Amino acid sequence: MPHLGLIFLGTCSVVAIYWVWRVLIWAWWTPKKLERCLRQQGLKGTPPKFLYGDLKELVRLERQARAKPMNLSHNIVQRVIPFIHQSVEKYGPLSFIWFGVTPRVFVLDPELIRDVLSNKFGHFSKLKSTNPLTRLLVQGLVSCEGEKWAKHRRIINPAFHLEKLKMMVPAIYASCSELVERWEKLVSDGSCELDVWPDLQNLTGDVISRTAFGSNYKQGQRIFQLQTELAELVVQASLSLYLPGFRFLPSKRNKRIVEIDGEIKGLLRDMIHKREKAMGIGEAPQDDLLGLLLESNMKETQGKEDFKSLGMTIDEVIEECKLFYFAGQETTSTLLVWTMVVLSIHPEWQARAREEVLQVFGKNKPDIDGINQLKIVTMIFYEVLRLYSPVAMLARYTYKEMKLGDVTLPPGVQIALPMLLLHHDREIWGEDVEEFKPERFSGGIAKATKNQVVFFPFGWGPRICIGQNFAIIEAKMALATILQLLEWMWWKPMKVQRYLEKQGIKGHPYNLLYGNLKELIHVTKEALSKPIKVSDSILPRALPFDHQIAQQHGKLFVIWLGVTARVNIMDPVLIRDIFLNKFGHFAKVKANPLINLLADGVFSHNDEKWVKHRRIINPAFHQEKLKMMVPAFLTCCNELMNRWEKLVSDGSCELDVCPEFHNLTGDVISRAAFGSSYKEARRLFELQTEQAEHVLQVIQSIYFPGYWYLPTKRNMRMKEINREVCSILRDMIKKREKGMKDGEAPTDDLLGLLLESNFKEVEEHGKAKNVGITIDEIIEECKLFYFAGHETTSSMLMWTMVVLSTHPEWQARAREEVRRVFKRREPDFDDLNHLKVVTMILYEVLRLYPPVPVHMRYNYKEMRLGNISLPPGIQIGIPALLVHYDPELWGKTSKNSIPSDFQKESQKPRRIESHTSRSVGALEYASGKHLQ
Ligand code: HEM
After folding, report:
1. What is a single molecular function from GO for this protein (predicted)?
2. Rounded CA gap, 597 and 482, in Å?
3. pLDDT tens, position by position, 493-524
């Protein structure tokens, strides 16, 4: 037994001595030998240090550099690769350090770099990671060599051809616009400081998910999440020295790594199987990277006997798909994030880039043809890639003895091409090397580099990045979309603000996206929440924000309604010019599509279309025709009076006239516009009233393009109402048209007159294009009758009641005139024309309580107005209410026309003859709800 024990001990000692010997050779003797070889040829560098080499110092310096806050200089070399920078400074451009036990030789000579990267003899190979965990993350094309690499590259290449990339542009755009929509939403929720880095990382991951896996995009997203987690775990693992067998230890991290790897492979394998199966039964391959790769793989092997060795196996395809994420995601997002940083440091280049983007795309979505025209943006990307190259260094390895210039490199040496050092080399780029100057690339890369291999952010030679065009298209698309967004919500408003300020047009400053809307809503709500006190002016209640700003900044002021400026003008001469619109450049303001549901007829049309509609509608409003409607007006008024009389006779004599007049004017429109179809018209009236309530709520928030399509409860109800309204109107119109075709005389209501006028127009001008208005347009005009004629008139009536109840002397004069003219018979049209006092009263009511407190126009061309110049794209507001109360125009009594005791009076219900008025309700209605 002791004998056996001795043998065992002896064997162990021999094995141990053998391993110690091997380790010494690996960790000491070989590095020493390599060092001698390099030094003998004149290379300088650090001495080898046992096992770790310079790794500890390298990590320490990097940590130290990154712990410091970063200033905004582009000189980032000492922060990103401090140790390499220090070594090259100390030992010269052809020097070495120790990456563990392996020497790493730096090559900075452009000619030598060309030799390494062109790899003519195929002996400068890619570095093989010693850590098998890293191999879980990066395999495939980027790490394979020789024949295998050539085969994979041949098969993958077609998927990255420009023609194929073109087909991926919509998918790239989808990801970009999703990002921008999310930003818009964030900003609209009130937060406007945003860390773009994680968002841009997600963007580039999303782009790969869509472009690589098309319809399987959701699985792609899952793979992206898993890859991101895997990358984090692997990075943690690679920060420590890898000991053989370590990955088999059942540590928490190792277990998770294996789990993730299994899930990724499972997802990809499933997808690939399904696609292969579909292609096997003759389905066309999809246009995504995976589809193109499988198609190319199939072509490579089709009809060939040794297809197994010619094509890629499923596992290899899986590795390539994983590589798309690894190689294309972080790199492109780094490029994008630095571009954002740099463009905010250099607003002049941001402006140039934006100008170019807007010139090429306007507000349209970016497409591939436009992307190819972006010269400035390309120059900017090159300069960002120079200063902030996403890949700081390329590395190769000598498996054989290799000649590099005058030096012979033994096998087992790493060659490092620190491109960041070259990109920041003063001798190559000049004294302004650390400045951001995209113009150095105005003549292209070759000119900027004088044809040397000194700028290679995507690598160079046969192993140049296969996704280079993909990355550039993606980055351009993202930047264009972001610049379009920023232009719309920040730069354009700021430019307009500066332009107006220079001309003395002031107001509250523009706030991102909301402009002054938040303040406006706040001030309005506050004004309305106070108990009604009608002192000497209704301005602070009816138009509080405009009033406040006008008091602060005078009669020419600006208000920001979201991103649009509204310049408010109170000078009568300028107001005349705007209303006359001699040059036709002041258009009606386009409402958001929800408001258009309520009214989108002649009221909002412009130019030719307006002229035609107005011509066709005009005859229906001729005095002669209006005369014919007087009986309908009278019927409605009589009905109202009868009801009031009944109420009074029943003993109740306090009445809220607000809904009464609301109903009256709705009734008048129903009868005057739709005559015999009055019952259906009542339903229309109810529906339009409900629609108006919804619209009122909508206009209090910002409208986002596309919001209308969201299936919110309100949107759905609004669409339902609209359908019912349109269907009732369509039925009515069709019946009338049929009657007219059958020779029936058109009815004397607005609809009849409109159809008759339209009919005449078509008859006169024959069947020429654009003659007459379509049935849909007639529907819109009918809807408009309610919108434009109902609330406005009832507001005027209510205020007349209020004012007459507080001015009994005028009430007496009006009553006296009415009695004198009508002589106790029913009023007719001519009688109405004799009511002078009543007309004066109505005018004064319209002055003091205009139902439309602000008129708006849109300026779509640069326009001169008096001494000011108005930029295109702004609104022009004529704040009628403010103008009507301007003491310079109306005298000092402008605000005091209503006696000072109005306040007391208004709080008491007061009877006007047998009719009662609750002025409080009326005032609330007109100043609050209506004038908002
Ligand atoms: C700004 C973005 C990008 C940069 C800066 C970049 C940079 C590079 C560099 C420097 C190399 C060469 C590595 C070497 O020679 O050792 C490379 C190779 C590679 N890149 Fe990119 N890349 C980017 C985007 C992409 C994208 C979007 C994809 C794919 C979707 C991609 C896929 C690859 C692949 C597969 C290789 C290996 C090519 C081969 O060895 O044949 N890259 N990339």
Report:
1. heme binding
2. 31
3. 999 999 999 999 999 999 877 889 889 989 98
